[in-house]
Amino acid sequence: MAVAFLSLAMCVTLITVTPAAADPLGDCTATEGAIVAVDFGPFGGEVERGCDTTPTTGYELLHEAGFTTEGTQHDGPAFICRIGLGSGTQYPTTDEESCVLTPPATAYWSYWLAAPGQNKWTYSQYGAMDRKPKDGDVDAWVFGGTDIGGTTGKPTFTPDEVRAQGGTGTPDPGNTPTVAPGTIDLAAAADWVGSALKDGERVVDDGADTPNYLLTTEAAYALAAAEGGSATLDKVTAFLAAHTGDYAYASGEDQAPDATAAARLALIAEATEADPRDFGGHDLIAGLADNVCTTGPTTPGCTAPGDFRHASYGDGQALAVLALLRAGAAPPAATVERLTQLQCDDGGITSILIRPGENCDGDPATTGLVALALREAGGQDTAVAKARTYLKKAQSGNGAFLGYTGSTTGSIHATAYAAQALSALGDTVQAGAAVSWLSREQLDGGGFGFEEGAADPALYATSPAVLAGAGTDLVRLTTKAPEPTDPPTTGPPTTQPPTTGPTRPAREGPDLKKGVAYLTGAANLRQGQYYAVGTGSSRADFGLTIDGAYALAATGLNNDKLRGIVDFLDKGGKDGEGRTLRDWTGTGTAYALGGSLGKAALLAEAVGRDPRSFGGQDLVAALAKAVCAGPSQAPDRSCAAKGAYTYAPSVFSQSLAVMAQLRADGRTAAQEPIAYLESLQHGSGAWPSLIPATGDSDVDSTAVAAMALDLAGGEKADKAVDKALSWIAGKQLPDGGFPGAAGNSVNSAALAVQGLSLDAERYGPEIAEALTFLAGQQNTDGGFNVAEEGQRGSDLRASTQAVGGATGISFGTLERSLTGTAPQPTPSTGASTPTIITPDDSTGGTGGIVDTGSGGSGGGALASTGVQIAALIGFAALLVGAGWRVVVGGRRRAATEGRI
Fold first, then answer.
1. Would you say residue 824 has pLDDT above 90?
2. How many whole angstroms separate alpha carbon 226 and alpha carbon 23?
3. pLDDT band, very low/low/confident/very high, at 99 (cuts 50, 70, 90)
4. How many angstroms separate the CA atoms of 277 and 109, rounded?
5. pTM (2 decimals)?
6. How is residue 249 annotated by DSSP?
7. Nearest partner of 222 among 477, 482, 480, judged by Cα
8. pLDDT band at 175 (very low <50, low <70, confident <90, very high)
9. Is 686 helix (H, G, I), strand (E, B) or coil?
10. How crowded is residue 616: how many other Cβ atoms within 10 Å of its Cβ?
11. CA-CA to 580 of 20 to 30 Å: which in 528, 549, 652, 732?
């Protein structure tokens, strides 16, 4: 791939991303690389396909396979509006689609997937930026329309017709071991650990008089994993707390702590429900956060900027990052970035705190631990994916991992940490094989030696083996017994009036404190002000940012962070591209978006700000102006009907805007929008997802419409709400979830809770089941999956809805005073310009299904039509890294998730 140039023509608002010199199609096989096919049939072309041997995202796959794309002016390049092949014309052309706003649901590029061995297409639950293709996958892009369930508009060709080398062979990525299952005897291991303690509280090396604090912490981890809370663990923890100064502050109380020691102690505190901010009289979290290197070796205890002082090795750096994350403190970005600098080209991670350019030699133990830390930190998907690939390739056929380069013997320590990481990443077969190998290496006394065949047990090896055998790791280790969690319905004790939610039956629900920590973590909430449209982008996703603010307002668990978001939006804060809330709403332009205006106004009202002067806009007046007097005439698609809002393409948008007008004492102005919303309800009680209606019935839209009409009140509205709630309750799935655009959807379950909570007394059992479902979709980092099916991993959009929805508080009554909060620190302005990698143009292939990257001069019907496309155009090239959270579902997916 070639490095592109930037032409800083500031007036340019569209960006075209050019393709790579595509990998030859023959380089992809059923077990290596991924295929993408694009159907240009609606434009007189053919089905073109291409290959990427090392796919990381669906977006990259599309470009690496030889295609070009262009996004919309409003949403950025990752909302794919046009696709072309090589230097050929991009479709639809500018005469057919302006690509200013989101294209209509009847004419957009829809995104379809097929896993290895599958010969049926599935509508993508993810946008291309968030989709993580695997070896053997096939992606397809089709222009046209789909319904809400993705049951129409599928490709006219099958996955097998475009799959690499044909066939449905299922790939076997990495060296997948096949070994007999085995389990570790945790009770025996705990007994051995207990026997290794002197006076039942500390480890003392043979021949020594002083404690070995490091091994004592390892003993604590092992006991916590094997037994949970116990008298022995309490005694060990008390000993460590009493000697915190000796271990972590050996150089003096007024000096920076040993980061590894402080992190180890903090993790024990966090695992045992103690306070790492007051452990043995020391604030270990502040000690870590306040002592991050800003220079290299000129500062004692530093190797490079971003090191925790005196961390010494990669494991110490990773432990310190984990300690901060588990305490709910955002690790300085430089400390996380420092971990990525330890990653070698093959994905392995070295134990040495090397500086850039130094020799890099990874090992499985460090790779496993650092991968856990990076996954928990978030925003490091590429590095985690590389580490995962490294681990899978490094595993021996018997399940073991070697300790270091050149070793020929399986390592207990390395295998244990690799097993922990693989388990957390979802590679259960590989993790199970590793645990099975460990079980065969457990000694008769219960302990483990350092290497395969060792006869002498050692704590340093036994501890991580016990964690692996217990199915846990230092991210999740806890002695706390599981207990039902009832989402809070009021904020923390304050002098301000809290938002109150409905009274609901006690039942296990998601951990809202962890959820809020995920939403407010530095890896997600950029500069404490906004969420970006994708990893590496400085472009704000204003709709998602407001969703996050709704969630924080509903819980009241971090009002300071909430204020940071609100101030950014209200005071004209600019994202990394200089865009403000006003740019997103389109106020004062021909493209004022009624749904966006309503969404912003509703937030202002919820937090006690003036919607008539929010973000430099009179949102109430703009909303009133956005009410349509009647349907617009094609090609103008601004107004669907009388009472609709301009460019509000969904029931979700209509409902939020109605609530915003009602809460601004605009009942008179809202009468026609209310009437139009009521007219969209089906006889069943459900609402469709889109405006104009497409005939579908959607849980998300029905729930938010019910909230709007509940706020409107009146006999007609009350009857409509009753029918809506009855319909929602009838759609609940056996596991408590609800169907949505993504399947058994977290979004839909959370919105169903909000809707059904309008009558919590009647629908208490359904609410309780939905909360249990949401709890099951929450990940260890506090975030939530998109749906019960499909790709695992926390998704910001799903998490904002899950956290706020789990409280049961309607958007119509949401209130959170910011009294008592202080303005958040203003981050430095300016965003660094990313290095932009762009591929060279390519064409190729012939025939009905045309292959890119074949080196030919053909290229099919579309490859040679049109003019040369610029490599990257203008300052808008900074948007290349942007990724709309659900990119390709277009207006349909955006509407159902309430983004617009």
1. no
2. 49
3. confident
4. 51
5. 0.51
6. T
7. 477
8. low
9. coil
10. 12
11. 652
